[in-house]
Amino acid sequence: TKQQILVYKKLVIEETKPRPWIFSIHGGGWDSGAPGDLEQNVPDLLQAGYVVFAPTYRLAPNAVWPKQLED
Fold this sequence. Notes:
Layout: E1 5-8, E2 21-23, H1 42-47, E3 51-55, H2 67-70
Parallel strand pairs: 2-3
Antiparallel strand pairs: 1-3
């Protein structure tokens, strides 16, 4: 199954240096949740200069561990 990574990045006209980033994996005990669950934190992180990556992964019970790790 193809998975996605949501990328949140503040638009900067002239970017002259690399920015720090956060790889944000949502919670949910492998059977619930989604990357968008963390969106309330994104504006503050963008304002602080971070780029945020939030991956999807398959959820139980349709995907049995370690399928989530393989994603």
